[in-house]
Design goal:
By secondary structure, the protein is α/β, with parallel strands linked by helices. The protein has 2 domains: about 80 residues, Ribosomal Protein L15, Chain: K, domain 2, CATH 3.100.10.20; about 240 residues, Four Helix Bundle (Hemerythrin (Met), subunit A) (Up-down Bundle), CATH 1.20.120.920. The strands form 4 sheets. A 5-stranded mixed sheet has the order 1-2-6-8-9, sandwiched between helices. Strand 1 and strand 2 form a beta hairpin. The longest helix has 28 residues. The chain is globular and about 60 Å long. The mean pLDDT is about 90.
Length: about 350
């Protein structure tokens, strides 16, 4: 159990959380492990078999603290939160834009352009440090293909075609992702993206990291008064937080992919930090999950240049800033939604 930047991560199987006055008590097998004041929390993320008392859920809902539940592999399961806040007029405008094909297309296209541009920039940096000339050539070819997609995306006439470009670009990006692994290459072999369940260690890391990023984006959207379930790029589906999925697209590579690759290449994670389940999936061990969580929160405390704002901000603020910019674009305060980009 760790508390970082107002998020409590509960990773111990069998943990039970309940309320005692204005604090959260965490117990494992009836033994008290921690006691944290509610006022210190912004969210709680529970992994695996973790129970929360109804009394605590109610208190957190009133306090505006959401609780998210994940499988042991990091797959998002459910989210408990109180009444939505924010301006109802903003949400109504968001719904109108989502039903407007042309305006939805413009936002979806911008988000995918941001995603592909960040993926290409990441590969350009990685190419310089590639182990062999052959690898540099393969990565360079992928960069050229991503540049081609960037030139083509502005011509996409429908959201469906934007999704098509996004899928092809993701395939090109992941086709060389395994070449970026520099340590313990056999254990961390990567032959493409797979999930539900992830079937290799790199995919297990990426899925876990994307689940964390998803929660940050959903929280940012809800925090500025947007409806996390109403998106522009991802298709509507009951129980799906489409706007959270939309917002995380341009942040996947700079926030998650870069960090997970760094943990592997620095030797902070090894092959025995993963468990192969009977169904064939791969998941992190409990100590490894804690290693990733600590690294994820530490990375969020670092600063990055936000090109549109022309300011340096902490990574933890990027989803919130992007949610604010999206709200301004929906209201018409700015001409178009500016995706986040890295240099």
């Amino acid at each position: 159990m760790n508390v970082h930047l107002n998020t409590l991560y509960v990773t111990t199987e069998g943990s039970y959380l309940h309320k005692d006055h204005d604090t959260v008590i965490i117990k494992v097998e009836n033994e008290k492990k921690a006691q944290i004041p509610l006022l210190h929390l912004g969210s709680v993320c529970c992994f695996g078999r973790v129970s929360v008392s109804p009394d605590l859920m109610g208190a957190m809902a009133i306090a505006g603290i959401h609780i998210a539940f994940f499988s042991p592999t990091g797959r998002f399961l459910a989210r408990v939160e109180g009444m939505p806040g924010g301006n109802v007029l903003l949400r109504r405008q968001q719904h109108r834009v989502a039903d407007d094909d042309a305006r939805s297309l413009a936002i979806a296209r911008a988000m995918v352009i941001g995603k592909v541009a960040n993926a290409r920039q990441f590969l350009l940096h990685a190419r310089r440090d590639a182990a062999t000339e052959e690898r540099r050539a393969e990565i360079g070819t992928a960069c050229e293909r991503l540049a081609m997609h960037l030139r083509s995306l502005p011509t996409a006439a429908t959201v469906e075609s934007v999704r098509g470009f996004e899928g092809i670009a993701a395939k090109d990006y992941f086709s060389v992702f395994g070449l970026l692994v520099k340590r313990n290459e056999e254990a961390f072999a990567f032959n493409g993206r797979n999930r539900r369940p992830p079937r290799d260690r790199i995919n297990a890391l990426l899925s876990f990291g994307y689940a964390l990023l998803m929660q940050d984006c959903v929280s940012a959207a809800a925090g500025v008064g947007l409806d996390p379930a109403v998106g522009f790029l991802h298709e509507d589906r009951p129980g799906r937080l489409c706007l959270g999925l939309d917002m995380m697209e341009e942040l996947r590579v700079p926030v998650v992919d870069r960090l997970m690759l760094s943990l592997v290449n620095r030797g902070q994670l090894a092959g025995d930090d993963f468990i192969e389940e009977s169904a064939g999936g791969i998941r992190l061990t409990d100590p490894a999950r804690k290693t990733v969580l600590v690294a994820y929160q530490a990375a969020k405390a670092l600063e990055v240049r936000h090109e549109f704002l022309d300011q340096t901000i902490a990574w933890s603020r990027v989803p919130h800033v992007q949610a604010l910019l999206l709200a301004r674009a929906l209201r018409g305060d700015i001409d178009a939604y500016p995706p986040f980009s890295v240099r």
